[in-house]
Amino acid sequence: MSSLLPAVVVPAFIPSPSQGVWHLGPLPLRAYAICILLGIFAGYWLGRKRWVARGGSPEVLADIIMWAVPFGLVGARIYHVLTDYKRYFGAGGDPIDALKIWNGGLGIWGAIAFGAFGAWIACRRHKVPFLAVADAMAPGIALAQVFGRFGNYFNQELFGRPTTHWWGLEIDPQHRPAGFEQFATFHPTFLYEALWNLGVVALVILADRRFKFGHGRAFALYVAGYTAGRAWIENLRIDEADHIAGLRLNVWTSILVFAGAVVFFVLSAKLRPGQEDVSGGKPDQPTDPEDAEARPSDEAETADKASDETPDKVSESASDGAKSAAAPADAPTDRPRG
């Protein structure tokens, strides 16, 4: 009986997608862009839950995100182009390709820096503490990165060294870098980083529940956690990159940013313990005319208080007035005699 069952073939590697673009008539749907958008929505969803739980206004956060996202996308592209400028402005490069964001190429460092600047502008407008917003959004940013890394999977880019492990990622010949044409499977660094970032999401959420981080400490924990993983994952990659003292540029960036995040975390915990008040950024509520009419005026409240006085108090006041009127006419006064 068992010999009649069809054999189940389990591939000894992770296959790459057959395509990353689908066309609806003249409209191309690119998997890379879809992954980025899904990441933005997922990150906002998680950040909104945390912000509201702290007493913040969801409307205010929505406006902050509307500032942060476009700033972050522009910054991510600028960082990528600057750190890989030879590809666009070097010999044989095409500067127009620097605008083709759908082909991949977003630097997380530029995204965080520019996105934070956009969020800071919006926080100033709404008079809410910027670091409190950063704390609320920290695990959401890591979650957005999880989705974004699958865009690299569809583009068959940013993979690691060759490997024969069963989880190796199959890369089509046209996407293999020079010198590695004879290899078929590589380390799936997109998957390593996605799984690592899921761990960072859990770390920040659980630690924040336990210690109630404030003044940027949850965000600093996210930065330290992410850069710790990025440093070793970056060392596996074989795509072209600038090297300093034998290490890739992004490895050095991870080390420096990790150190800065740890120092900030320690100083913040020492100098500014506790959490900020985020309720001051709630939008003004519209006034309902019916509520205004139903609400007693100050004069009416004063009259109500006066009517609540007991008969005993009224009697005491009348008695005091009678005693004053019956005082002797020659009673001494404080006026000087002439």
Comma- or semicolon-separated keywords:
single chain; globular; 6 strands; 57% helix; mainly alpha; disordered C terminus; two-stranded antiparallel ribbon; 338 residues
What would you note in describing this structure?
With 338 residues, this protein is mostly helical. It has a domain at 35-54 and 125-274. Helices cover 57% and strands 5% of the residues. The chain contains eleven helices and six strands. The strands form three sheets. The protein has a two-stranded antiparallel ribbon with strand order 1-2. A two-stranded antiparallel sheet has the order 3-4. A two-stranded antiparallel sheet has the order 5-6. Strand 1 and strand 2 form a beta hairpin. The radius of gyration is 33 Å and the shape is globular.
Short description:
The chain is 57% helix and 5% strand. It has 338 residues and is mostly helical.
SS summary, helix count: 11
**How would you sum up the global shape?**
globular
Our measurement of the CA-to-CA distance between the termini, rounded to an integer number of angstroms, reads 133 Å
Question: What structural class do you assign from the helix and strand content?
Answer: mainly alpha
Layout of strands and helices, then pairs:
Elements: E1 21-24, E2 27-30, H1 31-53, H2 58-83, H3 86-89, H4 108-126, H5 130-155, E3 169-170, E4 185-186, H6 189-211, H7 217-234, E5 243-244, E6 247-248, H8 249-271, H9 289-294, H10 298-307, H11 311-325
Antiparallel strand pairs: 1-2, 3-4, 5-6
Helix pairs in contact: 1-2, 1-5, 2-4, 5-6, 5-7, 6-7, 7-8
